[in-house]
Design brief:
Helix 3 packs across helix 4, helix 7 packs antiparallel against helix 8 and helix 10 crosses helix 11. The N and C termini lie far apart (about 45 Å). The protein has 3 domains: about 90 residues, Tetrapyrrole methylase, N-terminal domain (Cobalt-precorrin-4 Transmethylase, domain 1, 3-Layer(aba) Sandwich); about 110 residues, Methyltransferase, Cobalt-precorrin-4 Transmethylase, Domain 2; about 45 residues. The strands form 2 sheets. A 5-stranded mixed sheet has the order 4-5-8-6-7. It has a 3-stranded parallel sheet with strand order 2-1-3, with helices on both faces. A hairpin with a 7-residue loop joins strand 6 and strand 7. With about 270 residues, it is α/β, with parallel strands linked by helices. The longest helix has 13 residues. The radius of gyration is 23 Å and the shape is elongated.
């Protein structure tokens, strides 16, 4: 179930009721969740379930659920399973044919995306990049041709390194929005390009947790193209004397869209 990522007022009435009525709360960090429970005067008992103990804890939780008890799974903030523990226990419950009821809540990725001003109809969540150099390089190799808006999480001590790595594969002019300490007292939304982002943090140490919203591969004149934009471009090329096939091929070379898709649109022009 979702819990606030900073501002406690973002908790839902349904989440509060659930935390009050379940038999047990499985928390990533019982100390952290304890503060949330104390704030809302919730006395439901807790048990820890985090990355390094979940292989031992999950069988215990499944047995508890099989006895007819109810458990609320929470992490330190946001939705479990989104760059946080949760996936393994959800999968175990599915295999054990135990009903799972999602209690939605705030998420840093979506919160940052909607305020970014970048294209939000199609996006991809990358989470934290690998810390190992080989794994990190392999992940980054997939990104240059990605047309969708990309979402990353990053810790403050790795932010500058990640920004420089992104410049090396995407170029310094790619637009980026940095969401720092979202929903908290010192929330900050920074907008610019990758070069400006590096310059901004070159002489000051980043503080707090960051969500990075990075623009996808640019289309004609650096602008994302809608279906109507594509049809307009195709119409102009066809009216200039090109065949539909040739127009589709020409447009495919300067956008991120495949020729077959563009040819299908050309037939509608």
């Amino acid at each position: 179930m979702g819990t606030p990522i900073g501002n406690l007022e973002d908790i839902t009435l349904r989440a509060i009721k659930t935390l009050q009525t379940v038999d047990l709360i499985a928390a990533e960090d019982t100390r952290h969740t304890g503060g949330l429970l104390a704030h809302f005067q919730i006395t439901t008992p807790q048990v820890s379930c985090y990355e390094h103990n979940q292989s031992l804890r999950i069988p215990e939780l499944i047995e508890y659920l099989n006895q007819g008890k109810s458990i609320a799974l929470v992490t330190d903030a946001g939705m479990p399973g989104i760059s946080d523990p949760g996936y393994e226990i959800v999968r175990a419950c599915i295999q054990a044919k135990i009903q799972i009821v999602p209690i939605p809540g705030v998420s840093a990725s979506i919160t940052a995306l909607v305020v970014s001003g970048l294209q939000s109809d199609r996006f991809v969540f990358e989470g934290f990049l690998p810390t190992g150099s080989k794994e990190r390089k392999e992940r980054l190799e997939y990104l240059p041709e990605e047309p969708r808006t990309m979402i990353f999480y990053e810790a403050p001590h790795r932010l500058l390194t990640t920004l420089k790595d992104l410049i090396s594969i995407l170029g310094e002019k790619r637009r980026i929005v940095l969401g720092r300490e979202l929903t908290k007292l010192y929330e900050e939304i920074w907008r610019g390009n990758l070069r400006q982002a590096v310059e901004s943090y070159q002489d000051r140490y980043p503080r707090g947790e960051y969500t990075l919203i990075v623009e996808g591969k640019l289309s004609i004149e650096g602008k994302p193209l809608s279906t109507e934009d594509l049809k307009r471009e195709l119409k102009e090329l066809i009216e200039s004397g090109m065949s539909r096939s040739k127009a589709s091929q020409e447009l495919a070379q300067v956008t991120t869209f495949p020729r077959k898709y563009l040819y299908k649109l050309a037939l509608e022009v």
